[in-house]
Amino acid sequence: MRAHIVLAHPEPKSFNGHLSRVAAKSFEDIGWDVTITDLYSSGFDPCERQEYYSNPKDLNRFNVQAEQRFASEDGSIPQEIKEEINRLDAADLVILQYPMWWHLPPAILKGWFDRVLLYGEVYTSSKRFETGRFKNKRAMLSVTVGTSPETYAYNGRSGDIDLMLWPVNFTLAYVGFTVLEPFIAYGVEAGISYSNPEIINDRLLKIEQEIAFKCKSNENIDIVPFNKMGDWGSNGRIKDDAPIYSPFIRHRKNIEYN
């Protein structure tokens, strides 16, 4: 078995960096192989650019989807992207490790989605969700946030964490992954460094132990459900008898809020 960890934090000594190393060791302890992509340390460019395509379809206009599809067909996918797709192909479980910044992932991780999940190579209109490239593979978010579970509850001042993470989880589901319930480390303040032993306390050690346990018992993590292609009608809307898993996709347009 193999796990692939994608780390999106600019400081290797950060708590995010530490959690990625704890996760890697935990998988190795149960006999798994592990690969890690550290987006910042590798100098990953989150911006899709025409110059990355050695054999462009159109020299006059950069149509991102058209160039991704053309590169997928003629085998000219940028080398670093090809290597990352290979890591995803080889993995049984993918973990995205990142801090919540302004209620979203860091921009570099959004760019990872934009550049790595290529149109054509990774997804098409007929290759998504249950027929996606990464079907039969699992993925999980491991996220740090600065405040308590209460502030990220359904009625918390920071907003419902399940809804905030839905777009990222939905992206993973779109390309075929079975999405696991996320691991959320609460109360992780910016600036925490595991190079300083004075900051190690019971709360942080508990988080470390929790992610280690999650990794070692990953087969028991609950799945985040998403609709299948058959749940939508020909007009692209959810069928009346299809299940609903999130307020982002619902049967009624108007929902009353008290």
* pLDDT averaged residue by residue: 93
Per CATH, the class of the largest domain reads: Alpha Beta
The string of secondary-structure elements, in order, is EHEHHEHEHEEH
For the sheet with most strands, the description reads: 6 strands, parallel
- The CATH homologous superfamily of the largest domain: Flavodoxin domain
Helix count?
6
Structure description:
- By secondary structure, the protein is an alpha/beta fold.
- The protein folds into two domains: 2-226, Flavodoxin domain (Rossmann fold, 3-Layer(aba) Sandwich), CATH 3.40.50.360; 231-258, no CATH class.
- 30% of the residues lie in helices and 12% in strands.
- It has six helices and six strands.
- The chain has helices at residues 15-29, 64-74, 79-90, 107-116, 161-174, 202-216, and strands at residues 2-7, 33-38, 93-99, 138-144, 178-179, 183-185.
- Strands 1, 2, 3, 4, 5 and 6 form a six-stranded parallel sheet that branches.
- The termini are far apart.
